[in-house]
Specification:
The complex is a heterotrimer of chains A (about 325), B (about 450) and C (about 325). Chain A is an alpha/beta fold and about 325 residues long. Chain A is about 50% helix and about 10% strand. In chain A, α6 links the parallel β3 and β4. Chain A is globular, with a radius of gyration of 19 Å. The mean pLDDT of chain C is about 95. In chain C, the strands form three sheets. Chain C has a seven-stranded mixed β-sheet with strand order 3-2-4-5-7-6-12, with helices on both faces. A five-stranded mixed β-sheet of chain C has the order 9-11-10-13-14, sandwiched between helices.
């Protein structure tokens, strides 16, 4: 464990220097806040305080935080149903997120979207998508729009390993490639499309290999290494900004929780989950790295967790005090 | 063969009658001309008489039922038929025996559909009610939504309308046709129709079946005369666009005439003068002396003037026929006679029908002025208040106290143009102010 | 007498597209073979020469991609006009249209808007058989958040397309292959035919005929025939199917007492059912003199054989037959 972290320091020496302690600490804090949000979300769910379902990304925080921090203000985000982390890392307000999760009028979508459809249009977060691969063709349109408007924006679209087997993925990567659109396709490979393991769903080692079929660069990184994700997405975004077109980035990570709250997880062993949690947890790894690099000490690390819990406590209090949507407004927002 | 007794069409525009009460029971022996039941129609109570001798067999309708004219209401059996059929049913016989003969299946279907078998005419052997009879009785009238709306608006029973649509469905046009069917003229009254006294019938309080009646109110079914008044006035006000014209007549000359006659022991009421004056003015303005039945307007050559008479619990409008031909004296006599008959409930159907114009005088109640609803199918009615002493300018502009009478004319604007109504009112006033014209 | 300017339906659409693109840089076209080919039915012919390949974008055969590209561009400030080559192929775009375009705004609490138009030609009559002759408009009518427009004349085609592009919602714009070559008066200057305004295209007192798209000219032709027999049809073209302006239809049925709904799409689950239901549930019910009837496509795929194809959907003769029966009280 220690050995691995020292290797990392070697690898990321320059990056740690460039980002500086404040940015690094912010990233770790964000990872803590995401995890606290989702742990509380699960708790609220089990207490019967929210209805419907939810998809937790606990264990995948590095991908969300690494990718979001690699983007610039004005860039666009399209993400997927397991999207709490992406939204929060993309400058999401925990209060409004929690309110949306609890179906309140003060939520990002006035309680109309819920856990699976949180969007922050003002921040160019074009929303989480409940349809596997649903956001990928839209990203093509966003890329096309950026190109036609001649801005320097980039569109980050995050989807799972399951989405890479949808037809929309193939149509979209092809179109993005032929038109050299400023898009970063980030495949968040968490090993399972619901219950379907990637080894059974793909006959290739890395999903990023598919980029070659469309004439795009593709690379695979450790999705539980926040700085690896950050580096890869930064490079892809820079390339897009230079007008060189889209990139497919695959981040290999792991979800600790079931697909949704109704998942008995018969498709994998408890040992497998335990192994990822103990040896490859993204928060533990980044904490060790920052401590070894002297960015934070042990007390600060503990404090970050405490701070995250406090933020989420406040978010729950805010949400519980928020009004439900007015039934008289039920027709709002169907048409512009 | 059993002799059917039908609900007679007593004349006029009569569509249906309500059975007020049965005067016989099933099994009773009756002689030709005996009253079988009392019915009420257009404000008149009538009796249905036995067409021949026989034994009352089936009473097909209950008291309170409204029966379309020409429908069979009961049967009479001859002695030998009665012997062959079920024994004469006693009024105190168990209900099972008095029930009509029906097959078990017909009975079951009727029961599950809450159909009274007494209302079903049997077509089986010996008049036995079969399944087919019950199903036919249950069959609803086929009619388009438009026909149903029109029928409801005009108070028409759809079952009485001949349908020309597919499978006999009643179309809107069929209802229109039924509405515009020419009404029989007053003289079409069947001579054999008994001229029975027109009775004031007590309206029986109907206790609601289960809801306890609050002490604050008395619930009375809308029936008989009250229902007729309600239907006619509602229809009139809904279908005839009323226009109202008002004028004031100076009644000094009439007052003078009355005092002169009174001094000679002769009675002349304002009502009689008004009738004569209206008849005279109608002769000059025949558009107001008319009746309208849907798209058909009849202009009458005689002025049959109805005179509204208030009763204790209603209103009746006896008609002074041929008022234009009658002298003031004859009109006065007729007015007195009809008013007395009305209050005694003894008016005949002839005496309340055939009107072509109406007058409602509420002067005796101290009413100054009011508007009246046209009495359909007429197209105009005159509402008069009491004679009031008012100061009016004389020829030199000085105030003089004069007896003044308010005249309020309601006219059906479909038939009567405003100007015609105005001319009529002008001439009417002239006649009242110069009554010599009426005797000339 | 001044000459009345006439254009074909396809020319009217093209003129509208050109005018919109000249006025507004955000407007662009995207679809299969719409560039130098000019579109499968020639609607976009010549536009790539004027506006270049950047604004008249030929795509690969990727209908989901076309729909998605329109949505993404619309979400980020553009005014895309997509073309689906045959309405049949929109089945490949359904996820993007139904689950994304229609719902984005509502799901996000009314914050985003998707001002896009997707044009597509529907209908049979060209011998194109079952996979190139669909009339699927009611699929979209069933989706809240979408608007559905179906012009029947060159004039309406131009005015409604402009209204659709200026609207801030996703609009499914259904053209008809057989209408492309029909001619009619079209003013040169830009104009709008507002969405959601049904039009009484012919007045009559005996029977209300509600017809869409190609069935409008067919109903009008039937009306001319019937006028010789003394039967006057009132023909109403809803023009926008969703949101539907049903008031003129209800008013008309109150007058005529009879209604016939004619469309090419199959009867079962078709738009006619909606019209019939609106009439039956309205105050017009009390004025009905006959059952409300539908005349629509048979419940079969469109056959190839010319005669079979002809008989698969309503024609002038079948409208005549139904109208006579209704007016003569045979229903």
């Amino acid at each position: 464990m220690m050995q691995l972290s020292q290797d990392l320091i070697q690898r990321y020496h320059d990056l740690i220097e460039t980002l500086g302690p404040e940015a690094l600490k912010t990233m770790l804090q964000e990872m803590h806040t995401i995890r606290a949000f989702e742990e509380r979300a699960e708790q609220l769910y089990m207490q019967g305080k929210v209805h419907g379902t939810m998809h937790l990304s606990i264990g995948q925080e590095a991908t969300a935080v690494g990718a979001a921090n690699a983007m610039q203000e004005g860039d666009y985000l399209l993400n997927h149903h397991r999207g709490h982390g992406h939204c929060m890392a993309w400058s999401g307000d925990p209060n409004r997120m929690m309110a949306e999760f609890m179906g309140k009028e003060t939520g990002y979508c006035r309680g109309r979207g819920g856990s699976m459809h949180i969007a922050d249009i003002d921040a160019n977060n074009l929303g989480a998508n409940g349809i596997v691969a649903g956001g990928i063709p839209i990203a093509v349109g966003v890329g096309l729009s950026i190109k036609m408007r001649r801005t320097s924006q980039v569109c980050l679209v995050i989807f799972g390993d399951g989405a890479a087997n949808e037809g929309a993925f193939h149509e979209s990567l092809n179109m993005a490639s032929i038109w050299a659109l400023p898009i970063v396709f980030l495949c968040e490979n968490n090993q399972y499309a619901m219950s379907m393991p990637v080894e059974k769903a793909f006959n290739i080692e890395n999903i990023s290999q598919r980029a070659a079929a469309y004439g795009l660069p593709g690379l695979t990184v450790d999705g539980n290494d926040v700085l690896a994700v950050y580096s890869a997405v930064s490079e892809a975004a820079a390339r897009a900004r230079r007008g060189e077109g889209a990139t497919l980035v695959e981040a290999k990570t792991y979800r600790y929780k079931g697909h949704s709250k109704s998942d008995k997880q018969a498709y994998r062993s408890r040992e497998e989950v335990r192994d990822w949690q103990d040896k490859r947890d993204p928060i533990l790894r980044f904490t060790n790295l920052l401590q070894l690099a002297g960015v934070i000490d042990a007390a600060e690390a503990t404090q970050m967790r405490e701070h995250a819990l406090a933020i989420i406590d406040a978010a729950v209090a805010f949400s519980e005090a928020s009004p439900d949507p007015n039934i008289a407004d039920i027709m709002d927002g169907v048409y512009a | 063969m059993p002799v059917p007794v039908i609900m007679p069409k007593f004349g006029f525009t009569l569509e249906s009658c309500e059975i007020v009460r049965w005067l016989v029971n099933e099994g009773d022996r009756v002689r030709s001309g005996d009253p079988l039941c009392e019915v009420t129609t257009d404000k008149v109570n009538m009796e249905v008489e036995a067409p021949e001798d026989g034994i009352v067999h089936q009473l097909l309708y209950k008291e309170g039922d409204v029966v379309p004219v020409t429908e069979v209401i009961c049967y009479l059996l001859r002695e030998d038929e009665a012997a062959a059929a079920a024994p004469p049913v006693q009024s105190d016989a168990p209900s099972a025996q008095s029930a009509p003969v029906a097959t078990p299946l017909a009975r079951r279907i009727a029961q599950s559909n809450h159909l009274d078998l007494a209302a079903v005419q049997g077509s089986g052997r010996d008049g036995k009610i079969t399944r087919r009879d019950v199903e036919q009785a249950l069959q609803k009238v086929r009619a388009t939504p438009a026909a149903r709306r029109l029928a409801a608006e005009h108070g028409i029973d759809l079952a009485q309308v001949q349908g020309t649509g597919p499978r006999g469905r009643v179309q809107g046009a069929d209802v229109h046709a039924a509405l515009s069917a020419p009404a029989p003229a007053p003289v079409a009254t069947p001579p054999e129709a008994p001229a029975k006294p027109l009775g004031k019938r007590d309206t029986q309080p109907v206790p609601p079946p289960s809801i306890p009646e609050p002490a604050e109110r008395r619930v009375v079914r809308l029936e008989g005369m009250r229902r007729t008044i309600a239907q006619r006035l509602q229809k009139s006000f809904q279908t005839a666009p009323h226009i109202f014209l008002e004028a004031t007549a100076e009644m000094s000359a009439v007052a003078h005439l009355r005092s002169v006659l009174k001094a000679r022991g002769a009675k002349l009421t304002v009502t009689a003068v008004l009738i004569k004056a209206c008849a005279w003015a109608l002769g000059k303005h025949p558009t107001l002396n008319a009746t309208i039945e849907d798209d058909q307007i009849s202009y009458w050559h005689t002025a049959n003037i109805g005179m509204a008479v208030a009763l204790e619990d209603g209103l009746i409008v006896p008609v002074i026929h041929h008022a234009e031909r009658l002298s003031l004296q004859a009109i006065q006599q007729e007015v007195d006679r009809l008013a007395e008959l009305a209050r005694a409930g003894k008016l005949t159907l002839d005496q309340v029908s055939g009107g072509t114009f109406s007058i409602s005088n509420m002067g005796m109640f101290g009413v100054d002025r009011f508007t009246a609803i046209i009495n359909p199918p007429q197209v105009a009615i005159l509402a008069v208040g009491r004679i009031v002493q008012q100061f009016v300018p004389d020829s030199e502009g000085k105030p003089v106290l004069k007896p003044m009478l308010n005249l309020m004319l309601s006219a059906d604007h479909r038939v009567v143009d405003g100007a015609h109504a105005a001319y009529f009112l002008r001439d009417l006033r002239e006649a009242l102010e110069t009554p010599a014209m009426l005797v000339w | 007498m001044p000459e009345v300017r006439e254009l074909t339906y396809a020319e009217a659409l093209r003129e509208c597209l050109r005018q919109l693109m000249e006025e507004d840089e955000r407007v662009f076209l995207i679809g299969e073979d719409i560039g130098v080919y000019g579109g499968a039915f020639g609607v976009t012919a010549g536009l790539i020469e004027q506006f270049g390949a950047e604004r008249v974008i030929d795509t690969p055969i990727s209908e989901a991609g076309i729909a998605g590209a329109c949505i993404g561009a619309a979400l980020t400030g553009m005014r895309p006009i997509g073309e689906i080559q045959f309405m049949d192929f929109v089945t490949l775009s359904m996820e993007q249209l139904v689950l994304q375009a229609a719902k984005v705004r509502f799901m996000f609490g009314g914050k985003a808007s998707v001002p896009m138009v997707l044009r597509m030609p529907g209908g049979s009559g060209t011998g194109a058989a079952a996979q190139h002759s669909e009339s699927l408009e009611n699929w979209f009518v069933h989706v809240p958040g979408l608007k559905v427009v179906m012009p029947s004349t060159p004039y309406d085609a131009k005015g409604l397309l402009r209204a659709a592009v200026l609207d801030n919602n996703p609009v499914i714009f259904v053209e008809h292959k057989l209408l492309y070559k029909t001619k009619g008066h079209v003013p040169e200057e830009p104009y709008i035919v507002p969405l959601s305004q049904s039009k009484v295209v012919r007045e009559g007192e005996h029977l209300t005929v509600v017809a869409t798209s190609i069935m409008v000219p067919r109903a009008l032709q039937a009306a001319e025939e019937l006028a010789k027999e003394g039967i006057e049809l009132e023909v109403i073209d809803p023009r926008t199917l969703k949101p539907l302006d049903d008031a003129p239809i209800i008013e008309s049925v109150k007058k005529t007492g009879r209604a016939l709904v004619v469309h090419e799409a199959v009867e079962m689950g078709g738009f006619g059912g909606e019209i019939v239901a609106r009439i039956a549930a309205s105050e017009a019910f009390d004025y009905l003199e006959a059952p409300i009837r539908r005349l629509a496509g048979l419940d079969i795929p469109i056959p190839y054989n010319r005669e079979l194809e002809y008989h698969a959907v309503p024609q002038v003769e079948s409208i005549l037959r139904e109208a006579r029966k209704l007016v003569r009280g045979e229903y």
